[in-house]
Amino acid sequence: MPTLFVPAPFRKSVEDLSRLEVGAGSVSALLREVDTRYPGFNAQLHGPDGSVKKYIRIFVNGKDIKALDGMETALDTRDEVFIVSAMAGG
Amino acid sequence: MQTKALSEFDRERYSRQLRIEGFGEEGQLRLKGATVLVSRVGGVGGTAAMNLVRAGVGRLILAHGGKVVPEYLNRWQLITPDDLGRPCAQVWAEKLGQIDADVEIVTVDEYINGENVADLVSRADLVVDGAPLFEERYLMNDEAMRQGKPLCMGAMFGMEGYASTFIPGESACLRCVFPEKPEYWTDMKVFPAIGPGPAIVGTTIAMEAIKVLTGFGQPLKNILWFFDLESNTTRYLEIERVKDCPACGASRSH
């Protein structure tokens, strides 16, 4: 089952878990499934126009989904979806 | 970059790193001839500055406004309660001077802003950015890209951190990766922090600066190196230059 890494700013909405196993065949399906389990999760990632917020990047196996098939990037059982939110702490 | 000669004391002081394959005396001399601008001397920038001085950088420009307050004590290397109330940049210059009095240290008792950024970047060979506000980071990024200066960037939030090196004309920059700041990052009180997180980030970007300045090793070009100390996760994430990026895109001349 694909795994999702959840960055710290969004963990409160998934019971403080850093990692979730989610059965899904694409990035968009995975995020929908997480939102079903934890309503409100997706709303944190997307802006009013429905696109991913510009301070969030999503990677599959270390590659930015923008360089793959975007939200429709296909997922296999051993794939890892990694979300990173911009930070500036020093 | 100006190149200075190594003294006998230098050869002894740096004897361990002179033995590193690919670094050697040539790398040491390049480092000694280099000027690095450090934006903020907090948990990230201060750690980077300390490591650069120990490694033998020739000249540092430390830009940091304000005075030392108690909440800095949990993560700022070298700072002690005796320093409370003193100007941050000057305290750091004093401490770094104790490590190596031969390193030239210029203090700027201001944060990076629209008035000072162009001049400060123009005086450096490379920029190290550890500022806690996106406004300062975007200003620094844009100016470094405009002037064709490499920028080693590191940041953290809680137990997470990341680092990357932005080379104008060669790699992604901050705006390529994160064109906008998070709406929740409203001030510098936003981020939780405990010492080891910013220390790892600061140490990493110091090594990045050393690699870029000396030509030794492989800098984190087009890589966002990410870690989460809570879940013991680390990843090398591939990032790409955006062709029409307003800061570093192909339309910009370098």
Automatic annotation (TrEMBL), chain A:
InterPro entries, per database record: Beta-grasp_dom_sf, Mopterin_synth/thiamin_S_b, Sulfur_Carrier/Prot_Modifier, ThiS/MoaD-like
Coiled coil: none
Superkingdom field: Bacteria
Protein name listed in UniProt: Molybdopterin biosythesis protein, MoaD
Native species: Azotobacter vinelandii (strain DJ / ATCC BAA-1303)
